[in-house]
Amino acid sequence: MPAQNTALHFQDAHELARAIRQRELSSRQITVHFLDRIERAAALAAYSEVTAARALAQADAVDRLLDAGILLGPLHGVPVAVKDSVQWEGVTASLGSGALQGRTSGQTAAALRKLAAQGMVVLGKTRMTEFAFGLSGQNPTQGTARNPWDAHAARAPGGSSSGSGVAVAAGLAPLALGGDTGGSVRAPAALNGLVGYKPSTGVISLAGCLPLSDTLDVLGSISRNVADARLLTQLLAGPDIDDAATLAFPANAVAALRQPARRGAGPLAVLVPEAWPAPLADAGRQVWELAQENLAQAGFTPTPWCPPAALSFARMADDNSLVLAYEAYRHYGALAEDPAQPLWEVVRARIAAGGRIAQADYEAALLRRAADMAAFAQAMQGVDALLMPACDQAAQTLDAGDARHAGLGKLLRPANFLGAAAISLPAGFDAEGMPIGVQLLAPAGGDAALLDCASALEPVLAPAPRRPDLSAWGL
Fold first, then answer.
1. How many domains is the chain partitioned into structurally?
2. Which of 48, 85, 94, 184 is catalytic?
3. Which of 105, 157, 338, 353 is deepest in the core (most CB within 10 A)?
4. Per the domain annotation, does 28 fall within a domain?
């Protein structure tokens, strides 16, 4: 690659798309650049499978179309990484499990078909927590993606979309598609200094994706900024006959999402500390307080928000875990109960626990979910977004019992239980230089207003973005 292109890997997706449209660079040049970095950064273990031949063929095809005057979409020619759970016909999809190692997909997920139809180039499949059941991102069975912010100690990359977060943070993809069932897009984003957007349930079709929880699963993006997250979601949003949730999602909410971003933030609230579902460690508290100071200096005055008595964020986090485990057992219980299957024992125990949940308790949780969604929407009237912590601490070193990041789940899971739109934003660093994020929530269907608020807060929360030192990884 020419010398001026050495920083391509840290350019925003919309900037890469502009360079392609204006013929400053071809999609093939950009794709080769990322494939070269991926090959040199094998130690980061961001990808479970690199689809280099397919990616180059896609890049050549979209370059030929552009030569013919055909532009497929606003991200025409831009590379993207995709979580392993998003199926692609002829490519392996093991859900991060040794029990499914080598299994090849016989279909292509609706979301991946849309990416290709928009002219995007898929670099490959990214690593994930086994069966997407865990937020630290740890996976001893297939290998854990390495958090690039610490070259000396193996820290949590965030999960379950661990490889997607590492790929974007390390400049191995300009943006990535992940899944979020209990925080699995926002966790890797928060722990890698990125933007992680979980749309409302029903915005993006899950058809062709391998499930963890049919009720809670959502596809979302990991990107460098809110603008890229919004753009990728605009390309993927819309009804799909093969996903009933997309058919039930209000058409006017999708239309609002596709409108240009509004300037400035709408009414903003902040969750009072006594309502947090988990306490913050000292570093998390310091970053949270710094975020409040930065917002105040920029003229933002969020209204303190205390939820109705029945709307406990801690209880919703627990209910989300109950629903997730119950439904995960229906999909993978037979594998978990078979001692011959090579599952990580931590994940095996999590899945097996779902088999001990009574159906009546599961159904009661679903009834509470419907009531909570209605109560949250009612209580948030007149407010576009709710600000709250995304993580209690920065990424810690990995622990065998995978218990060190429990607070991460408690803070992230309520948004999934509410079917809410949620986005994590970089907000600062701990004393060791590890990223910490905050998040915004909006009631289901409030995605457009949420993203408007996120766009306004983004430069205030992280006025001087940092990137990890990648020299130790040969990059």
1. 1
2. 184
3. 157
4. yes
The answer to whether residue 284 is domain-embedded is yes
Q: Are 173 and 31 a contacting pair, CB within 8 Å?
A: no
Residue with tokens 């391509």: 8
The Cα 187–Cα 408 span in angstroms is 7
Determine the length of the chain: 475
Torsion angles phi and psi, residue 161, rounded to 5: -85, 55
Question: 1-35: per-residue pLDDT in tens?
Answer: 333 344 899 999 999 999 999 999 999 999 999 99
pTM of the model: 0.97
Q: Which of 48, 160, 321, 424 is catalytic?
A: 160
Residue 352 · residue 333 · CB < 8 Å: yes
- Residue 198: active-site member: no
Q: What is the pLDDT of residues 28-80, one digit of tens each?
A: 999 999 999 999 999 999 999 999 999 999 999 999 999 999 999 999 999 99
What is residue 3's predicted lDDT score, i.e. its pLDDT? 36
- Contact status, residue 80 vs residue 120, Cβ threshold 8 Å: yes
Contacts of 203 (CB under 8 A, 6+ apart): 218, 233, 236, 237, 246, 249, 253, 254, 257, 421, 447
Distance separating alpha carbons of residues 18 and 4, to the nearest angstrom: 16
Single-letter amino acid, residue 178 = G
The answer to whether 141 and 101 are in contact (CB under 8 A) is no
What's the CATH number where 427 sits? 3.90.1300.10
Q: Report the Cα–Cα distance between both ends of the chain, in Å, rounded.
A: 14
- For residue 468, the enclosing domain spans 3-308+384-473
Question: How far apart are the C-alpha atoms of 47 and 124, rounded to whole Å?
Answer: 7
Whether the Cβ atoms of residue 133 and residue 347 lie closer than 8 Å to each other: yes
**In-domain check, residue 319:** no
In a domain, 373, yes or no: no
Mean pLDDT (the chain) is 96
pLDDT number for residue 265 = 82
Is residue 160 annotated as part of the catalytic site, yes or no? yes
Q: Which residues contact 9 (CB under 8 A, 6 or more apart)?
A: 33, 34, 37, 171, 172, 174
**Catalytic-residue membership of 26:** no
Q: Which pLDDT score, from 0 to 100, does residue 298 have?
A: 96
Catalytic residue among 48, 83, 161, 164: 83
Rounded to whole angstroms, the Cα distance separating 145 from 247 reads 35
Tokens coding 61: 């095809």
Alpha-carbon gap, residue 224 to 197, rounded angstroms: 11
CA 285 to chain centre: 23
